[in-house]
């Protein structure tokens, strides 16, 4: 289903409330909530609202385990552009999540170890019972996570090559496209599909064209987000700008 909100903040508060309810429900049952998280501009207000609920309403993340979708490769966790830095700044340093509950693909792993590392990442998610909810943004190439055009629907966590458009879109943070890594480690489309709930968020008119293709277009590996049409557990949460081309 597609839900359109009047603004990005209304939509983000709705998503944050869903996550907060999940966390509280799990807490009440003495269980862990397993969250699949995204970086980038899209989820920033969701994280802001979760931080607010932590500070003002006592929402605790002690029973939360997180798995981030992706990380650039190679990438030092302490670099300004790393997704580790992003997650710390926007969420993890501002809440009470235990450090050992945080999982982000390691951009420093030796290339010869990457495959085993990716399999272990996947395995760890399964051992915890799978992702309760996966947050997604969408790239202008139609990527989810860093599953660029050509990704298979059953792909797992792996090392991928970034699309030129993705690197161009990331260039501001790196001071030029040539400084954006050419590769990344990402959860696969298959990994994302195993989540019990998938929430894809998109804001603003510059996402309208790709959102239209993802929601209404023919399913194709050229636009990996179209695979989501196969899932019964996915919700597209849009603001009016991102929904503006939907029929
Ligand atoms: C980020 C990720 C990407 C982004 C997408 C949109 O972890 O996996 O798929 O969600 O590139 O980026 P923004 O939100 O910056 O428009």
Can you characterise this structure?
The protein contains seven helices and ten strands. It is of the alpha/beta class and 247 residues long. It has one domain (2-159, 186-202, 222-239): Rossmann fold (3-Layer(aba) Sandwich), CATH 3.40.50.1360. The chain has a seven-stranded parallel beta sheet, sandwiched between helices. The relative contact order is 0.17. Residues 38-42, 69-70, 137-139, 143-146 line the site of fructose -6-phosphate.
Summarize the structure.
This protein is an alpha/beta fold.
Domain count: the total is 1
Coarse morphology: globular
Number of helices: 7
**In what order do the strands lie side by side in the largest sheet?**
1-10-9-6-2-3-5
Mean pLDDT: 98
- What ranges have pLDDT less than 50 throughout 5 or more consecutive residues? none
Distance between the termini: 14 Å
Listing every helix as H and every strand as E from the N terminus to the C terminus, the arrangement reads EHEHEEHEHEEHEHEHE
Strand content: 15-25%
Which range best describes the helical content: under 10%, 10-25%, 25-40%, 40-55%, 55-70% or over 70%? 25-40%
CATH topology: Rossmann fold
CATH top level? Alpha Beta
> If classified by CATH, what would the architecture be?
3-Layer(aba) Sandwich
The hetero molecules present are:
fructose -6-phosphate
* Annotation, overall tally of beta strands: 10
| Estimated radius of gyration | 17 Å
Helix/strand/pairing category: alpha/beta
Core attributes:
single chain, 247 residues, alpha/beta, Rossmann fold, seven-stranded parallel β-sheet, 7 helices, 10 strands, globular, binds fructose -6-phosphate
């Amino acid at each position: 289903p597609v839900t359109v909100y009047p603004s990005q903040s209304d939509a983000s508060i709705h998503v944050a409330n869903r996550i907060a309810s999940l966390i509280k429900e799990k807490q009440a049952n003495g269980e862990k909530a397993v969250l699949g998280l995204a970086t980038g501009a899209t989820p920033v207000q969701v994280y802001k609202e979760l931080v607010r609920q932590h500070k003002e309403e006592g929402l605790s993340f002690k029973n939360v385990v997180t798995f981030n979708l992706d990380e650039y490769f190679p990438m030092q966790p302490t670099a300004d552009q790393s997704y580790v830095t992003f997650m710390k700044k926007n969420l993890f340093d501002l809440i009470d999540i235990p450090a050992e509950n945080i999982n982000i693909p390691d951009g420093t792993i030796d290339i010869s170890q990457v495959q085993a590392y990716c399999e272990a990442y996947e395995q760890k998610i399964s051992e915890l019972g799978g992702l309760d909810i996966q947050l997604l943004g969408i790239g202008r190439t139609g990527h989810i996570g860093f599953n660029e055009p050509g990704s298979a629907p059953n792909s797992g966590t792996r090392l991928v090559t970034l699309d030129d458009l993705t690197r161009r879109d990331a260039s501001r943070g790196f001071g030029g496209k040539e400084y954006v890594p050419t590769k990344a480690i990402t959860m696969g489309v298959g990994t994302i599909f195993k989540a019990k709930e998938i929430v894809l968020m998109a804001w603003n008119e510059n996402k309208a064209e790709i959102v239209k293709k993802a929601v209404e277009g023919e399913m194709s590996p050229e636009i990996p987000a179209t695979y989501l049409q196969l899932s019964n557990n996915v919700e597209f949460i849009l603001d009016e700008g991102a929904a503006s081309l939907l029929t």
